[in-house]
């Protein structure tokens, strides 16, 4: 008997991965205490190893944390952590180092919401079927947008970036869901609450068709930086019917010929400690 499959379920569209979220931080010591000690992520041992920037690896994705002031994502980042069962203990142990900051955490039935020292929010999950085969990584970023903006944002990503989108719900709110990689999504979630002014934070994506979106962005005069042969940037998301700006989020857009594309990222096993050390278990090998 011939098997049948839903072949569309494996369609990714033009965006093949969400590689990093970049927010500026004013203090690398506190950033280390939070992202490395508390969350259990891995500081990249090869890139940005000085005292003015840090790349924190999580599966095949990263946080970029340059020391150029303070930036706060208008939303939150989702992480899948295989050490989820011990995360509460790690957060409690780090609380003293983070005292006097905005650091906090709240344990829910299926996830833990964590706030960094400067107000960036992160939602931590254990691996599970809702994240496919991802065992450690960054499955989604949620961005808060104005009521009524989701449909226009979905159309923008479909038309300009050739990314599959749907209108769905996230935390009981209407949201545009944008596919940005294998088991990775952007959610633009509508809220009637106040939205802070855009402060310059960005996300970075890799796309297969590099020139097509560039040409379409040029038509609307949206390119903000021609970085190099393999990268450009844009910020504004438009309602393509009216030409009005509906949201601002800087996108660092890279081609698959960018020298950093598919660069293997080092991930450590944060359970390894002096008192319980197990030889041969230092490295963590993420499925994504």
Can you give keywords for this protein?
4 helices; 8-stranded mixed β-sheet; single chain; mainly beta; 288 residues; 2,3-Dihydroxybiphenyl 1,2-Dioxygenase, domain 1; globular
3D architecture notes:
With about 290 residues, the protein is mainly beta. It is about 15% helix and about 35% strand. The protein has four helices and 16 strands. The chain has helices at about 30-40, 85-95, 150-160, 210-220; strands at about 15-20, 40-45, 55-60, 60-65, 75-80, 105, 110-115, 120-125, 135-145, 165-170, 175-180, 185-190, 200-205, 225-230, 230-240, 245-255. The strands form two sheets. It has an eight-stranded mixed sheet. The model has no long low-confidence stretch (mean pLDDT about 95).
